[in-house]
Amino acid sequence: WLPDAHSEAPAPISALMSGVLLNVGIYALIRFKTVTDVAAGPEFSSVWLMRFGLLSLGLAAAFLLSQRDYKRMLAYSSVEHTGIVALGLGFGGYWGLLGALLHMINHALTKSMLFLVSGNISLRYHTTEIYGVRGLLKTAPWTGFAFLWGTLALIGLPPFGPFISEFIIFRSGFAAHSTPYAVTGIALLVVVFAGMLASLNHMLYGQPSGPMEARDPLRWSMVPLALNAILLLGFGLTLPAGVRAFLGQVLKTVGVSL
Predict the structure, then answer these.
(1) What are the CA-CA distances from residue 67 to residues 144, 192, 229 (Å)?
(2) How confident is the model at residue 19, as a pLDDT?
(3) Can you tell me the mean pLDDT for 40-61?
(4) How confident is the model at residue 231 (pLDDT cuts 50, 70, 90)?
């Protein structure tokens, strides 16, 4: 349902859905894990979370490669990142859960930023088709730069926050001797990386279909985008003490310690 909802919803609603609503669903997964760890042992929930995490990554990778609508592309990316969080929960331990929680924050920042940018793109080009948007950096420079910044963060490149949380998650997978799941997950991320990079290249650097002046719609909308961009870079360089304390308290609540 997620791609259908995102493709029809206004950009601010899509930002809320990906930034807030998905994390509420992931909270249910965390509650599921804490209960089943006590009732059936940690191995039961870990195996199923890792399996469903890879399934989410696989489905997202398949659909992203053939996607023609940039809002649906971002929605399938949310499926991908939910799968990454599920893998972190499945790998378990302090680092697996820490990475999953941190990735929830990073994904919320990244995706809310990109859906807000998508609203500006739609206003400028009057379409949500990937191949209907060309030369975004020329026709709407600030919007194009924000889209580039957010997408590079989304696909997990350093020095942005999602790179750190993904690194922690997959490192915990190797440490937990879940190497097949970790390797498969990384391979699927490479597929997603290639698919999104191809779409990004076309939208940002393609030749505009006709003469268009360089103009960004809704200049004031750059303010929240700039805040998100700064936070994404900041979380990639250092984790504020307040955030560390908050995540530590959450881990204690679910009974995990270093």
Answers:
(1) 20, 11, 25
(2) 81
(3) 92
(4) very high
Neighbouring C-alpha atoms within 13 Å toward the C-beta of 182: 19
**Residue whose pair of structure tokens reads 């609203």 in the numeric block:** 119
CA 116 to chain centre: 14
In degrees, to the nearest 5, what angle opens at C-alpha 78 toward C-alphas 149 and 193? 55
Torsion of CA 241, 250, 80, 59, to 10 degrees: 170
CA angle, residues 99, 100, 104, in degrees to nearest 5: 115
| Cβ neighbours for 13, distance < 8 A, ≥ 6 positions apart | none
DSSP state at residue 257: -
The whole-number pLDDT of residue 90 equals 94
Q: Which of 176, 28, 174, 164 is CA-nearest to residue 92? A: 176
pLDDT given for residue 5 in this prediction: 77
Please state, in angstroms and rounded to a whole number, the distance separating the CA atoms of residues 253 and 249: 6
pTM to 2 decimals?
0.93
How far, in Å, are 107, 141, 165, 176, 252 from residue 226 at the CA level?
Answer: 16, 14, 21, 38, 33
Question: If you count DSSP H runs as helices and E runs as strands, how many of each does the chain have, helices first?
Answer: 12, 0
Question: How high is the pLDDT of residue 14?
Answer: 85
